[in-house]
Amino acid sequence: MEAKKENGGVIAGPTNPMVTPLLTDLYQFTMAYAYWKAGKHQERAVFDLYFRKNPFGGEYTVFAGLEEVIRFIANFRLTEEEIAFIRECLSASCEDGFFDYLRGIDCSDVEVYSIPEGTVVFPKIPLLRIEGPIAVVQLLETPFLNLINYASLVSTNAARHRNVAGKSKTLLEFGLRRAQGPDGGVGASKYCYVGGFDATSNVAAGKLFGIPLRGTHSHAFVSSYMSLDEIIDKSLRRKDGSSTCEDFVSLVQTWLSKIQWSKSLGGIFGETNQSELAAFTSYALAFPNNFLALVDTYDVMRSGVPNFCAVALALNDLGYKAGGIRLDSGDLAYLSCEARKFFCSIEKEFGVPDFGKMIITASNDLNEETLDALNKQGHEVDAFGIGTYLVTCYAQAALGGVFKLVEINNQPRIKLSEDVSKVSIPCKKRCYRLYGKEGYPLVDIMTGENEPSPKVGERILCRHPFQESKRAYVVPQRVEELLRCYWPGISDKTRETLPPLKAIRERCIKQLELMRPDHMRRLNPTPYKVSVSAKLYDFIHFLWLNEAPVGELQ
Ligand SMILES: Nc1ncnc2c1ncn2[C@@H]1O[C@H](COP(=O)(O)OP(=O)(O)OP(=O)(O)O)[C@@H](O)[C@H]1O
Ligand SMILES: O=P(O)(O)OC[C@H]1O[C@H](OP(=O)(O)OP(=O)(O)O)[C@H](O)[C@@H]1O
Ligand SMILES: O=C(O)c1cccnc1
Ligand SMILES: [Mg+2]
Fold first, then answer.
1. Annotated Gene Ontology MF terms (predicted)?
2. Using a 6 Å cutoff on CB, does residue 365 contact ligand 2?
3. pTM across the whole model
């Protein structure tokens, strides 16, 4: 089901057909023209794509969006229609030669090095290093950032929800209706899966990416029924096909009165809502192998749960196993515990094995905080359905990924700022992750391109890029080079293949497990160290002094 990406070496276009060379900011085209006009357009430039601060008050980020970036550049070419439109947008004084130039450009002479998708990443370290003719690479800035910023933000959000929920819970992404438009919805489903969700309700995402689809039913289904008389075909074949129960409705009613009259259960409720019972029965007749019920339309413990149990027990008589319930309002901790108690009592009272283990799904405006609160209170929820807060990234609207020039014509460049965190780190660089004795990543380090790589067992000085006093010697037990070649351009490097989405997800889950727990906690997490080599440190500060004008005091 994985969307076609590499067919005989040909990389398919971006998933969203709106991703074209025009999906960029106007200023990329005006700059491209000015480069061309100055005869500068072919100058070889190196840009880094990185972010400055981890989102959600955390100390880690999941990197996602790379596959779409590679699909974009693999198919980057302007059509005649697009060129005509750019001509209309730019000033009438722009010369024809520029449009001939645009007609000929593609990304065959662009090189892209990247950290693999699904890796846990940190501020300042380039996620991608892009090298090529400056005019072309400039056009890539906005689409690259567009494809990576939200993808990484929502994957991180998903990973954070997973971190709070715990490994054993099932996490369902239910956000399509609240997502920021169709691409926001499809993107959220894809990247929440990467970040550790198990399934989505989004059918399009299931088809496009092979993400497992899951769902229950809504309140509308329950309230659309008025009475049991609406059920016309009451027959249900036993699961083993050996016989047919001609009146499943009566079987359900018999079970409901057994529950009602049971000493251990009956005290909890009197008459249940019969229209709800009709809805559940009807759903069970439609899906006897996968019967799920939304139990909070009228009253969870006085109606929804007993009605569900009556239907589930009737199904059990015919050899079927019910799927479970969903709670969508009220105190989810309390109600899940009460429902669990009820299921366990049924198991005991009627000797139905595993009835107590019935799946309880909870939904309703869930987010990291409510999951955390539920954990602290104690709950019996097995699966969480999460929509709005997850896909809209309610806790932080955007990841501030940027795309900065670090070298042109082999000359390192720097961008200065009053705000030190915004000073760019110049040079075409290599990046490494150094692992310590206990197997945890200790520090990421950037070096100049031609510096020798850090070696296992050899002490290396890791310096904070801007704070002189912050430095540490590290003797790595493992050294991992972070940037790999995903688009070799005209170089003879081999291109990394694009892994299937499931492999990206598995990488992400493994990466998150590998981190030292104090970097991952929600409250006051420890920052992960990001550093530069001594040589790069000296060079940054040399260039800084060189480029910063000396002030004059009067
Ligand atoms: N035990 C709990 N601890 C903390 N938060 C909870 C708990 N149970 C539910 N919540 C959260 O509390 C909020 C309750 O929402 P709200 O006040 O809108 O009530 P409701 O249950 O949706 O009621 P209704 O649907 O009947 O209006 C939701 O965000 C839900 O996730
Ligand atoms: O709460 P979210 O995290 O966004 O998850 C998705 C929600 O969407 C559905 O109902 P919807 O919100 O459409 O209606 P409701 O609030 O009236 O249940 C569902 O019942 C969930 O509550
Ligand atoms: O299948 C569900 O239960 C579902 C799907 C989308 C939104 N809310 C719930
Ligand atoms: Mg809602």
1. glycosyltransferase activity; metal ion binding; nicotinate phosphoribosyltransferase activity
2. yes
3. 0.97
